[in-house]
C-alpha cells in the first residue's frame, strides 16, 4: 500500500464547469483509488489523463496553455484553479480559488488548505 499522495490539478470556468485537467498523479495500473480524488472525479467525470504515477510530497509545477479538454481554446475571464490531494487511507486536501486570466500577466498566491501548504498561479499573457 502506497502512502504517496494522489494529486489532481484542473481548471473550471466561473460557473464551476470542468475545463481541463492540467496534472493527474495516481497509480498507472491496478488503481482502485482514483475516484478518491472526489472533487476532481466529480468535476471531470473521471477521464484519466495521467501525468505520472503517485509522487512523494514535494514541489510540483504544471502549466496551462489555455486549451480545453474538448480541444478548443478558453477565452479570457474568471476561472477556478483547483488542486486536490489525497493519501490512501489518509487525509484529503482541496484548494479551489477563482483567478482572472486576462490580457495582463499576473501571479496569484492561492490560500493553502490541509496538506497543500503553498500554491501559486503564474499567468503570462
Q: How would you spell out the order of helices and strands?
A: EEHEEEE
Tell me the Rg in angstroms.
14 Å
Number of helices, counting only DSSP H or I runs of 4 residues or more: 1
What is the mean pLDDT? 81
The outline comes out as: globular
Structural class comes to mainly beta
How would a crystallographer describe the biggest sheet? 4 strands, antiparallel
Which percent range describes the beta-strand content?
A: 35-45%
Count the E strands.
6
Strand order, largest beta sheet? 2-1-3-4
Describe what this molecule looks like in 3D.
The protein is mostly beta strands. The protein has one domain (6-123). It has one helix and six strands. It has a four-stranded antiparallel sheet. Strands 5-6 form a two-stranded antiparallel ribbon. A hairpin with an 8-residue loop joins β5 and β6 (119-123). The longest helix has 7 residues, at 38-44. The chain is globular.
Topology (SSEs and partners):
Layout: E1 6-13, E2 18-25, H1 38-44, E3 77-86, E4 92-101, E5 106-110, E6 119-123
Antiparallel strand pairs: 1-2, 1-3, 3-4, 5-6
Organism: Tessaracoccus lacteus
InterPro entries: DUF2271
Protein name: DUF2271 domain-containing protein
Give a brief outline of the structure.
Helices cover 6% and strands 37% of the residues.
Keywords:
125 residues, 6% helix, single chain, two-stranded antiparallel sheet, 1 helix, 4-stranded antiparallel β-sheet, DUF2271 domain-containing protein, 37% strand, mainly beta
Amino acid at each position: 500500500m502506497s502512502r504517496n499522495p494522489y494529486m489532481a490539478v484542473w481548471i473550471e470556468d466561473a460557473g464551476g464547469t470542468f475545463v481541463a485537467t492540467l496534472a493527474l498523479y495516481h497509480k498507472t495500473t491496478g488503481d482502485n483509488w482514483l475516484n478518491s480524488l472526489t472533487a476532481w472525479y466529480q468535476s471531470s467525470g473521471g477521464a484519466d489523463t495521467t501525468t505520472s504515477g503517485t509522487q512523494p510530497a514535494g514541489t510540483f509545477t504544471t502549466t496551462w496553455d489555455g486549451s480545453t479538454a474538448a480541444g478548443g481554446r478558453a477565452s479570457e475571464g474568471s476561472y477556478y484553479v483547483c488542486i486536490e490531494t489525497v493519501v490512501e487511507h489518509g487525509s484529503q486536501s482541496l484548494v479551489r480559488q477563482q483567478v482572472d486570466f486576462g490580457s495582463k500577466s499576473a501571479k496569484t498566491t492561492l490560500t493553502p488548505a490541509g496538506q497543500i501548504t503553498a500554491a501559486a498561479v503564474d499567468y503570462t499573457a
